[in-house]
Amino acid sequence: MRSVRARTALGATVVVAVALIGAGLAVLLVLRANLTDQAGLQAEVAAREVAGQLALDVPVPQLDLPDAEEHPVQVTDEDGRLVAVSEDLVAITGTGTDRVEPQASAVPTSTGTDTDDDGGGDRHGGEDRGDDDANVSIPARGEVSTDDPDFTNGTATVDGGTADYRFASVSATTGAGVTLTVHAGAPLATEQKAVGSVSRAMLIGLPVMLLIVAAVTWLMTRRALRPVEGIRAEMSAITASEDLSRRVPEPGSRDEIARLARTTNETLTALEASVDRQRRFVADASHELRSPIASLRTQLEVGAAHPELLDVPGAVTDTVRLQALAADLLLLARLDAGERPGGTRLDMGALVHEEVSQRTGDRITVTVSVPPSEPLEVTGSRSQLARIIGNLLDNAERHAESSVAVSVRTVRGSVVVAVSDDGPGVPEPERERIFERFVRLDDARSRDEGGAGLGLAIARDVARRHQGTLTVSRSPEGGARFELRLPARPDPGR
Questions:
Q1: CATH classification of 256-336, choosing from 1.10.3300, 3.40.50, 1.10.287, 3.10.620?
Q2: Is the pTM value of this prediction over 0.85?
Q3: Alpha-carbon span 244 to 479, nearest angstrom
C-alpha cells in the first residue's frame, strides 16, 4: 500500500482486532469457568444432601433423591457397585459407573447400627480403605467427607433427552461402617447458553467494531494529512514554476505538521535569498569581468592594427587585474561550497611580518607591532589567513593618507590582528555594508585605482570559516580600524 491513510487504517484495524479477539477469548474463558464452577457448586450441594441422608442411616430404598433432570444421582458402594439411582435416569457418563440399574450389595436396607466396637472401626475416627487408597480420607461412621469433592463433566439421558452435566462425588459413612459415594450432577445448559450468546454477540459485534475503527482511522488520518497534501501540492507548484517567492500554507495548529510547514517556509526563504545572492553575484561578476576584458581586447586589436600604438603596460595591468578578479571569484566559490579550513598551527605574528615584508612597492610604509614573548598561535589555513591580512592591508593602503599600522595581541583567549589607517574612515551606517560583495563606497574612484569590492567580503567569509570575526570601527588616527579575532590555539604545556 502506497497510501499512508490505508496503511494507518489497516494497522489500527489489525491492532484493535487482535486486542478484541484476545479480550473476547479471555471473557469467554472466565465466563465459562465461573458458570462451570457455579454448576459444580450446585452439584456438590445436591451430593452432600444425599450423603447426609446416608450418614444418618436412611435406608437406601428410602433415600430422597432429587429430580433426575435437575440433579441426576448415583450411589455406589466401596466396590463400585451401583446401589441407588435417580428415577427416570436412562443413561449416564462421566461418573464412577455408567450403570443405571441398582445391583445387589451388602449395604443394609433398614435402619441399624453396629454395636460391636471391637471390629476395629472408630465412630469418631477415620478408616483406611487399604494400601492402594491410603491417601483417600474415609469419613468416620455417621459422617460426610469434608474433603473437596471430585468434579467431572459428563452427560445424562432422562426421558429421552440428553444434556451435559457437571458431576460432584461426595463420600459418606453409615452408622454400620459402610462407606458410600454419591455422584450428583448439575446441568451445564445455562453455561452453554450464556457462552453461546456471548460468542454470537462477539462474532456479530467484532466485524462491526473493526469497520468503525477502520473508517474512523481513515477519516482522522485523512483530516490530519490534509495539510501535508497542501504542502506537497504547493512544493510541486513551486518546483514547476521555479518561483521561490511562493510559500506553503501554514495550518493554524501547533502540531508537527504546522512546524513542518514553518520549517519548509524558512527553508524556502533561505533558498530564495541564496539564489538571489547567487544571481547578483553572477551579474556583478559579469559586470566586473566585462571591463578589463573589453579594455584588454581593445588594446590588442589596436596593437594588431597599429603595432606602434600598442599599450603593453596597460595590457599587462588589465591582465593582472583580470587574474586577481578571477582568483577572488574562485575563492568565493570554494567558500560558498563549504570548503573547510586546514588545521595548520600558525603564528599570527610571524604571518603578519611575512605579509608586510613582501609589500615593498607600497606607497605607504606599514608599521608592525607584535609583542615578542606573547603566544599568538592559531589553527587554520595559512593561505586563507594570509589572504585576510593581504586584503586588509590593500584596503588600508588604498584609503590611508600617510600611515598604516598593524598590531597583533591576545585578548581573553583570542588572537586579535588590528589594521588601522589615517584615511577618511567608514561612516557608521555603512560599516556592515562594506562587507557585502561588489560594494564600494567611493563611486567616484576609478576602477583601476579601486578594487572590485570583493576583498572585505572574502576576508569576513574566511574569518567566519575559522570561527572568528572581522569588524570595523574608527581608529585613533581618524581612519578605519579593522579587527580580526581568531580563537587562540591552547597551549599544550599548560
A1: 1.10.287
A2: no
A3: 42
